[in-house]
Batch of 4 targets.
Target 1
Amino acid sequence: MVFVVGHDWGAIIAWFLCMFRPDKVKALVNLSVPFIPRNLCAKPVECLRAMYGDYYYICRFQEPGVAEAEIARLGTRTFQKKVFTYHKPEPLYKPEEGWGSRNEKITLSFWLSEEDIDYYASTFEKTVSLDLSITTASAVRFLLLLNLRSVESWELAAPWPGAEINAQTKFIIGDEDLTYNFPGMHLYLNFCGLRMFVPGLQDVVIMKGVGHFLNQERAGEITKHIYNFSKQF
């Protein structure tokens, strides 16, 4: 059995691991993305589009070529800077005119260095083809295929209607994370909504003044949370 820690997409995978193979998970610490029960009526992108419209970044990037063209226009380093420095509680939109210019000055957060950006950009470029004539599996295409992948997960989860996450769990999120500010999320996390579907939930931690990349923004605190929780097991 394993002790699992997940963040963002990793958190989604961790929730599914706990649901599909509870015999393999000793305990779980998940960050930023809470467990959302299977919607019987609508696909994930349809729900996001209903809440935020066509220009919400996930909805906008479902159109083939849009994400690749934007990354190519901005350059990978500028694109990465924009992603990692986004620290607002409101939804992230991709306007028709794009996310600014390649040469704009972007001030990095205190927890982020130019060396970090170099590493992220070079690693990203190894997995991504920005040649729109090439169709290869890549990091960006995981996002582009969100609806397909989510529908696959949605269909695969059909045998588990009303499934619960019984692994002993701690969930941590920042109050300036755009996920925490989804409609209804405050109530869901603060008034036992999450616990209805995660009976093994021991604690929900809402970190004040913290955005989406809390594992980097408050690395020391997150490490303590993980370590102290893991000592129980």
Note: The chain has twelve helices and four strands.
Target 2
Amino acid sequence: MRKKKLIAVVFVLAFLVFELSLKLGYLGYFMAKPEDLNLESSVSETPNGSVFVIRWDIERKALDRIVNGNDIVFVFYPSGVRVSDEFWPLFRGFPKLNLTVRTVKGDEVPGRVGYNVWYYPTPGFATPKVELIRMAYVASNDVEGGRIELPLIPTNISKCSTIPVIFAYFHDIGGGDVDPGYVELRPELRFGSKYPVFGNGSLEFFFEFNFSAWIDSTGGWVEVRVFNVTLPCGGG
């Protein structure tokens, strides 16, 4: 009886030590790292037009599979430029993403996403602001990859323009620090000949995002990639 009680005590202590180590981020070495995140991008032609596709896969380790952590997928992409009271859209209608995630069992299911619209300033004394859409998806630990599709349906004024699509992936490894906690970039929009004011020109904007403030309950690493995508030049 004493032996069984001792085994139970040791088991409980071991579990508590494991839980504390995970909470403090000490087990991150045994979990997936940034180099275990595989990303591919492409443009596919469909009956409904061109679609920009991002595919991701993360090679989860054994510890990732037993820890009840949540990864987060972010996608940021511009929808237009606002100058004073005028707005010049890059897409026809609100450019929603299509998200499909793949579980460890191989099942593919639609992912539910949320959107926010932010405005980012541009350099110099000019007044233009770039309207950027942010999509966020929280992935449970049984999701090992997925596919994001952005239909490329330009307006008449935005044809042939090139836009930056920013992809960010947060992987939960516990602890209290997010690395990097803050990201600052200067992406560039390159416009087609028909775009007002900036036609055949380019426009930088100040992109910044505080991952540490957004992810405040755990720690982990963040991988950020920027894809430059050209909108179709033809069509109606």
Note: The radius of gyration is 22 Å.
Target 3
Amino acid sequence: MNFKFKAALVAALSLAPFTASAFDGPELYDGEQALYEKAQEEGLIVSFDTGPTWANWSSQFKNFKARYPGVEMVYNDLGSAATVVALDKSRNRPQADTAYYFAGSALDAVAKDVVAPFEPVNFDKLPDELREKDGKWFTVHKLNIAFLVNKKLVKETPESWADLLKSEYKNSIVYLDPRSTGQGQVVVFGAAFGNDGDMDNIQPGIDYLARLHNSGNVLRTVGTTPYAQFLKGEIPIWIGYENDGLKAKYKDGMGDDIDVVIPKEASAAAPYAISMVKNGPNPSSAKLWLNYIMTDEGQATFAEGYVRPSVPGVKLSPEVADKMPDAPQIHPIDIVKATALKADIDTGWSKAVLGD
């Protein structure tokens, strides 16, 4: 446990009240008040890898604390893979109550037996590919592939995977390397879905990217998210995540100089999941927290941070809905199948694109 995290934990424990109180308004779900009273006896929730600047976790913390003032919140920002390592190392004396990560890391956590089954509010509404059958992990939001287009550098915005092959986009396109990045892998799935492929046939995605490179339209592939370079005007078209484009448009000053396009044929969505930690110190608080972020209220809060909710049919405010209109052509990837296909993508992409 690092010093800053330990200090925050000690401070939170010292602030935790010891008497239960009711929250204002009706219950969000049956049994919410009773669960809150149990959680307040613990007085604390320790949430791993929920960095406040990512996916609007900062607003989730604020809203949770406002509704449940008797439960203090402590969090860190470790990264998905490091979170699983931390859970494994502390399995005899768990520090965390919940863990958030890219769903591929959730599979690792299940394999290491460091997470517990729990079915939160709205669990049954999730498609099978967005949850572990017993609730050892479940998706809280999705990140989907989009074209992020700098309109100062591109005359006509591409609307489809087919458009990207046009000669007018010579030396214009950047995307992440699928061999070393999760986002790059999702790009392959998006390209596959947009070219008559599916989770059982990703070759059309690999073949498409080979054609894109052969056309001369790819400027480069990169190993880390090129958000800063995109903001500086160094990238005409980035095949990346929608939320980065919306953040650039509405928060970081690009405004009308950027178009964020969901390709019209199809796109892929990457699931981000959360789990209850096995033998965590505050199980009632963990359940209260996990239930809250899966309520319609919690799901709408994710959307305010420009990530799409995992629960179908969540009502969004008109302002948020206007920024993220319905896109039925977005298909979530099956993370179990995606993980099994990683080696095939690595070798297939290398051979088709690089000639390795």
Note: The CA atoms of residues 19 and 157 lie 58 Å apart.
Target 4
Amino acid sequence: MSLLSQQEYLRYSRHIQLARFGAGGQLRLKQSSALIIGCGGLGAPVALYLAGAGVGHITLVDADSVSISNLHRQICFVESDIGCNKAAALAKRLCALNSDITVTSIEAMLCDANAGALIEAADLVLDCSDRFDVRCLINRYCLASNTSWLYASAAQFSGQFAMFVPGGPCFRCLFPQAPENPVDCNAAGVLGSVPGILGTLQANQALLHLAGDQYNTSSLTLLETAPLQIQSLGFEKRPDCLACGAAVRNPDQNTASTRAKQAQSVLVGEPTNAAGDCHEIPYDQLQVLVQSEPHSKNHVLLLDVRGAEEHLAFNIGGRNIPLPDLRDHLGEIKQQLATHSAQHHSRENLQQQSEQQSQNRSPNEFEQTTVVCYCHSGRR
């Protein structure tokens, strides 16, 4: 009994005609599972092509909702999808495109709590996110489970992608440190077709890999669209890699110097669960926080890190410092925090019944300053 039905032979006949693909390659696609992290400009074309090609199971992961600013490049969505979760909306499109496959939507961010199980269940992971820390998380769990994964990014008129396979160089071999001035679609803009091109290249590589046409060439492909240029750069394993290097494979050889570098890397590139971490808060909670600030012991400093045009079009107050310029203003922000703290302490002292009561207060009883960076939910 054939494992491909007559209908499937007809549906995928153009694949089966390919000498390097054939019925065997199509069967491998049917039996494979792909995990797509991010359902935006990159994830949309990736998911549609994998579904159309007959990849047996696709898992979509995204906590974001569709916004009107997404529609110029995330063409799997329509206006009626605005406000809906991206993973859920995209899952409906995939099921409508191909009823023979199964699709799971995870309406959450990839994190330590879910990454292990999701990645272990996949034959291939596709990074379609826009965050360095998420890529580091994917890299870590793919190394642990010997799972191949594809990375891609796009911004303005250019983009890049690379594949990482077990035994080869990893993401941190290629990018040992977090970028100092990251460029993303939200801060720098993007031509709508660019993520589509990168996502299609990513999907092409994924289909070849899942069908068994695998080659382990470690290269970073760079795409520039204005003017059109494509370049591939080879890269190798780094013996001192913080994710897959000798010190990680042989903990006894992990020197104090290496441990210091690892600690620095975590602080720069990956979020932890320690106090002082960043957290996302819903827009309605942000409004309550800002409105209650004058009557609260907790001072709020609101920074709008979107572009100037977005800030003028809509804002809820705060200081507008576009994300690419934020590093240049850190000194001013620290001074502003110090000034607010001093002013608040002065007001507190005036409100005390006596100077002695004020002097006896513990420093921990003074207010904590909360810094909120408003970046808008439609960031991908």
Note: DSSP finds 16 helices and eleven strands in the chain.
